[in-house]
Amino acid sequence: MFLRPLPLSYPQTRDALHRVAEEIVAPARKPHHEIALTQTPGGFGTPEFEHDGRRLQVRVEGGEIVVETDGTVTSARITNLAEVARLVGEELFPDGMPNDESDLGIDPEAAKALGAFYELAAGVLEKFKSELPCDADPSGTNLWPEHFDIAFEAGSEQAGRRANYGASPGDANHPEPYLYVGPWSGEVEGELWNAKGFTGAELDYAELVAGADPHAAALAFLRKRFEALTTRGSDPL
Q1: Mean model confidence pLDDT for the chain
Q2: Do the Cβ atoms of 116 and 40 come closer than 8 Å?
Q3: Per residue in 105-132, is it b (16+ CB within 10 Å) or e — as a string?
């Protein structure tokens, strides 16, 4: 996966799409009491789900909202939440439709950059998960609308080695995306554990862009932290 330096508009676009995830895409699954999302081509969205006898998927692809109903695709540029909600359909908003008509200011190039990062992250996480021993008991991988990150958990909780393995598009402490490992319990020390704002480790977007093979660099980052947690002996962290 080829990553490019991020445009200056990236933080604003990321925050705007975070709102779309929380207020438009995730609520589409609320009739089924589920909000977890997934990485989809060019961005993020719901898995396919059934509603009133129809097969549906609601997703964001670049700077567009896409609604697929029984194989028929409808899409439009994302302008404001109210307009996007009307396209998705009132029946998928049991708690009421968003009515904010202020312009979200989404830059299509920045939205494509976010989609490319999610694509890289999803591929790396699934490859890493496939290598784990059975006793690591990995969870499913989800893209969570609250924090807008894509992640799964793995490792022995009883031994204090369980951790979240994931990728964030950025947050208050990180203007750019990053991969992370967040141990559930105890303290970790040493140069492997360099996270800002939480206990754990992170690999910044700039390091991924600068490298010849971002996929390999990301895998090496996750593998090394998993090994470090696993080889600490039987004592809790």
Answers
A1: 93
A2: no
A3: ebbeebbbbbbbbbbbbbebbeebbeeb
CA distance 72 to 131: 37
In contact, 145 and 21? CB cutoff 8 Å: yes
Could you tell me where the beta strands, DSSP code E, fall in 6-63? 38-40, 43-45, 49-51, 54-61
CA distance 214 to 204: 11
Torsion angle of the four alpha carbons 13, 203, 233, 190, in this order, in degrees rounded to the nearest 10: -120
* Residues 193-231: tens digit of each pLDDT: 999 999 999 999 999 999 999 999 999 999 999 999 998
CA distance 220 to 212: 13
| Pairwise CA distance, residues 137 & 182, whole Å | 16
| pTM for this predicted structure | 0.94
What CA–CA distance (Å, rounded) separates 206 from 216? 15
